[in-house]
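Progress against Task 2.4 (sequence-to-structure conversion) is shown through the following example record, which the project officer requested during the mid-term review.
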Amino acid sequence: MKTIFVIIYIFISLNIYSQTGKKNIYYECLLNHIENKVSNEIIQRDKIITDTVYIQQSDFVSEIPDRMNGMNVKIVDNEIIYKKTSNKKAITVIKINPIVFIEEGALINIVTFGISRKRKHYININNGFTRYLIDYDCNNSKYTYKVKSSH
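Structure tokens generated for the chain above:
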């Protein structure tokens, strides 16, 4: 019964938070992913590879600040990805997958991958992922985020 209540509450709060402009659980997972995974991958041997993180456009996170964790953040759609990958250039994009419900609770998977293309053929390389297990603490009226797995 508790699991059903938590699932219903997560669905309701996802809609409330996204409609009122407050941070939603997708945003919180994305922020954590950028702070803990992407920042470490982009900064290698004290040399910054890039100062911009690209987020694939989705309905889950519609508004993102221009900067997160000291890095520029831009939402990109397929047209922008096409333009950015011209002349055999590659970019790193973060994709937020829809919420999935498992026995332990709600799960959000955030994937970082590289995209390049040769003519109209895209090449995607999975650079890593983080799966967040989300639970709702009814006593404190807060979501808790726990990394279930990461690569």
